[in-house]
Specification:
Blueprint: H1 7-19, H2 26-42, H3 44-55, H4 59-85, E1 88-90, E2 100-107, E3 110-114, H5 122-133, E4 137-141, H6 147-160, E5 166-168, H7 173-179, E6 186-190, H8 193-204, E7 210-213, E8 219-222, H9 228-240, E9 252-256, H10 260-275, H11 291-300, E10 305-308, E11 312-313, E12 318-319, E13 322-325, E14 342-348, H12 351-359, E15 366-370, H13 374-383, E16 388-391, E17 412-413, H14 418-424, E18 426-433, H15 448-457
Parallel strand pairs: 3-4, 3-6, 4-5, 6-7, 8-9, 8-15, 9-14, 13-14, 15-16
Antiparallel strand pairs: 1-2, 2-18, 7-17, 10-13, 11-12
Helix pairs in contact: 2-4, 3-4, 3-6, 4-5, 5-14, 9-10
The structure holds nicotinamide-adenine-dinucleotide.
């Protein structure tokens, strides 16, 4: 019988390995990123099978997020890592004459990465890329709800990496709670805002830095100048990818009253175009992760008018693409993150009113705006706080590694992707190097003149 280390032994072994300095060199990080790339590329079929078994994801959807973007992020990191690792020289003010200033990116050390079930590979491996690029060790904890993906992640990572460098721990709330008793140097959590509070509380016992990638209700605003058919197509795609179980999916649509009917009809037509008029029989339509979530989604349909969809197949755990109208802010569907293929449509008469209403809610992770009006675009960007957004598009901002990805307030703190992942897993250690060739006596001075000069310098 193999003996598994306890969580404390695992963390201790990672700390020893990190402190040996093995993870820090450019050569080591590059080699591990290349290994991770091969792991994903060589096991593409197994990954696609696992996400199909967990969520009925089609090959296209599975590849798009749980394989393709991961490979793209690794390639991007490999291309830029050497430059990211270089200490960055910054300007030094005249007050520090004779000295130079630099920022060194210091790996945090032992990281805990906790992932959700909706994109099980993407949301486990993308942060891991940042941890490796940053020169850290990591323990990853996939979601227990995506059973097949969690099992495969465990097999792949355990075979490819020694556990004192990268380990995969499986389990749910109980195991995560036990893991959180350990001391980490950084915790990276992706999941709901409510569990995010538990993570932050646990991290506070050691003052461990945390990155929180959370959720919320993402508005999509469609104004009267918008290209309605295109807006409907891009919203339908962004909403129905993964059957709406996407943290940055448009949660609800806020449409100008004058175009509401046209938009609603176009949205229905685009949903039919994407998954046919019999979506529950469509082999490419993603299912809901479990019965509990399906029941929760069904309950959200009770109050408003179901304009389109609403059918359920409990056997297949599927809910048809659904559009709700006559929705008010008091309805249950507007009280929680939907995280499913239900699209409530609300109407507004003035943009100011819509902005004020959105600002009364928690700061969203994502916001989308469909408009042809530049002033509207400027006003929305200026006035509404949100984590990440798209103008005349949905979801695509996630796929640009040059944009930081993350929420704000209750939708998260910290960001990652591309260089931001590297920064997320490293501390900017700032160092001033002073000359010993001379020593300006000014700072030691006690005279009025010295004080006057100092006053001038610090104006
Ligand atoms: P969740 O919060 O239920 O679970 C996430 C992780 O936390 C899992 O690994 C789970 O095992 C663990 N967990 C569950 N209960 C716990 C507890 N009591 N103590 C400690 N850990 C616990 O989230 P989920 O249902 O897996 O994912 C859906 C949520 O995640 C949505 O709110 C969505 O918006 C959000 N999300 C955010 C992002 C993002 O990048 N910002 C991405 C995907 C999902």
């Amino acid at each position: 019988m193999p003996t598994y280390p306890t969580y404390s032994e695992l963390v201790a072994s990672q700390r020893t390995f990190f402190q040996s300095g093995s993870t820090r060199s450019y050569a080591f990080r590059k080699q591990q990123l290349e290994k991770l790339y091969r792991l994903v590329a060589d096991n593409e079929q197994l990954i696609l099978k696992a996400v199909h078994e967990d969520l009925n994801k089609s090959e296209l959807e599975g590849f798009f997020a749980d394989v393709g973007y991961i490979k793209y992020e690794i390639t991007h990191a490999l291309k830029h890592l050497k430059r990211w690792m270089k200490p960055q020289r910054v300007r030094t003010p005249l007050t520090h004459f004779g000295s130079s200033s630099s920022i060194y990116r210091e790996p945090y050390g032992v990281n805990l990465i906790i992932a959700p079930w909706n994109y099980p590979f993407l949301l486990t491996i993308t942060p891991l890329i940042g941890a490796i690029a940053g020169g850290n060790t990591a323990i990853v904890k996939p979601s227990e709800l995506a059973v097949h993906s969690s099992d495969l992640l465990h097999k792949l990572l355990s075979n490819a990496f020694p556990s004192e460098y990268i380990a995969c721990v499986e389990g749910g709330a109980e195991e995560t709670t036990a893991l959180l008793q350990e001391r980490f140097d950084h915790i990276f959590y992706t999941g709901s805002s409510s569990i995010g509070k538990i993570i932050m509380t646990a991290a506070s016992q050691y003052l461990t830095p945390v990155t929180l990638e959370l959720g919320g209700k993402n508005p999509a605003i469609v104004d009267e100048s918008a290209n309605i058919p295109l807006a409907a197509r891009r919203i339908a795609w962004g909403k129905l990818l993964n059957a709406g179980q996407t943290c940055i999916a448009p949660d609800y649509i806020y449409v100008h009253r004058s175009v509401e009917q046209r938009f609603r009809e176009s949205l229905r037509d685009e949903m039919i175009q994407l998954y046919s008029s019999q979506p529950l029989d469509n082999p490419d339509y993603t299912c809901i992760i479990n019965d509990r979530h399906l029941s929760r989604l069904q309950r959200l349909l009770a109050e408003p008018t179901v304009y389109y969809g609403g059918e359920v197949d409990r056997q297949k755990r599927m809910l048809a693409p659904t559009i709700l109208t006559n929705v008010t802010w008091d309805h249950a569907v507007m009280q929680e993150e939907i995280f499913g293929p239900i699209t409530p449509i609300l109407t507004y008469d003035s943009l100011d009113e819509a902005i004020a209403q959105i600002k009364k809610q928690e700061k969203p992770l994502a916001l989308y705006l469909f408009t042809e009006n530049k002033q509207v675009k400027q006003q929305v960007i200026r006035e509404i706080p949100f984590g990440t957004g798209g103008i005349n598009d949905t979801l695509f901002q996630f796929l640009n590694p040059n944009l930081p990805f993350g929420g704000v307030g209750s939708s998260g703190s910290g960001s990652y992707h591309g260089v931001y992942s590297f920064q997320c897993f490293t501390h900017p250690k700032s160092v001033l190097s002073q000359t010993t060739k001379f020593d300006l006596p000014l700072r030691y001075g006690r005279s009025k003149t010295a004080l006057q000069i100092i006053r001038q310098l610090f104006k």
